Amino acid sequence: MACVFRILLTLLLFSGAANAAAPKVFSEVRQAIEDAKKGEKLIVFMLVDVRGFREEGEALEELILDELKKRGDEFVVVRCNANNEAHVKMFTDRFKKDLTKAPIAVVSNAKGEEITGCYGVDGSMYEKMLTLSRIKGGKVTDEKELVELRVGLLEGDSEAKLVESIFGVMLEDLKGKKVLLSEVRDWTYKKGGGFRAALLAGRGETGLFIDAKGEEIEAKFAELSEPDIEFLKTILRFEETETKEENNPKKIKK
After folding, report:
1. Which residues 6+ apart lie within 8 Å of 118 measured at CB?
2. Residue 79: which residues within 8 A CB-CB, separation 6 or more?
3. Is residue 2 part of a domain?
4. What CATH number is associated with residue 144?
5. Domain extent for 31
6. Which of 74, 106, 113, 214 could pair with 117 as two cysteines, CB 3.0-4.6 Å apart?
């Protein structure tokens, strides 16, 4: 019995190590796509070894591979060459990118459809590119992690810089430097109905919430259920006030 247990433990540890493996790195696009299709992985096309930016390109490649070192179950990487005509044509014709702005990386799904990407030599932009690709590529399913990743996209950078540097980033992906005051949970109205979100802030009688899609929601505290109000009292100092406002959450227009 002990022997069987040791075998099972070894298999579990091996499985965990495999799932935490680094992504495969290819030089041939076709091989990368074939491997990505097997596990519905995302593909990172790197063109960082360009004239005039060799040192910066090497640093960016190292950064990208380090960021993905435990995400071999989510990504494969293609190390593209600026002297390879097929690689250059892929960036200019398929992805419609301006290679005068290289170094550059593009992230696609297993079908080769672009999700996001990044120009330049700012490593933090490439880190956020990978975060955004995981969100848009459906690799993050935990609601709390989704909210935290969306909130973290703006850390240290302006919306303008992110929109300029990262392909496909939308203003709705950027929700500002916000600290979550609660976990993602279900909130219920006294008169029925509700929503699922995390609390961002208390503004007098009103709460500002954010859901897993990045949508912001306003709701009057006094309209929430008694269990919700008791929960709020543990994280906010407020007194319940009466209100005759409607009970439906109000989506904030951007």
Report:
1. 104, 105, 125, 126, 129, 165, 166, 167
2. 25, 26, 27, 46, 49, 61
3. no
4. 3.40.30.10
5. 16-173
6. 106
Query: How far from the centroid of its chain's Cα atoms is residue 21's Cα?
Result: 20
Write the CB contacts of 74 (distance below 8 Å, at least 6 apart in sequence).
23, 41, 42, 68, 134, 137, 139
Residues 101 and 221 in one domain: no
115-153 b/e with 16+ CB inside 10 Å = b? bbbbbbeebebbebbbbbbbbbbeebeebeebbebbbeb
| pTM, to two decimals | 0.66
CA atoms of 212 and 216, how far apart (whole Å) = 10
CB 223 within 8 A of CB 189: yes
Question: For residues 185 and 216, what is the distance between their CA atoms, to the nearest angstrom?
Answer: 14
Cα 43 to the chain's mean position, in Å? 15
Domain boundary among 173, 197, 220: 173
| Euclidean distance between CA atoms 99 and 88, whole angstroms | 8
Q: Is 250 helix (H, G, I), strand (E, B) or coil?
A: strand
- For residues 170 and 205, the answer to whether their CB atoms sit within 8 Å is no
* CB distance 95 to 89 below 8 Å: no
Tokens 């699922």, residue located: 196
> How many structural domains does the chain have?
2
Between 173 and 63, the more confident residue is: 63
User: Residue 26: what are its φ and ψ, rounded to 5°?
Assistant: -120, 160
Q: Give the pairing of strands 185-188 and 194-203.
A: antiparallel
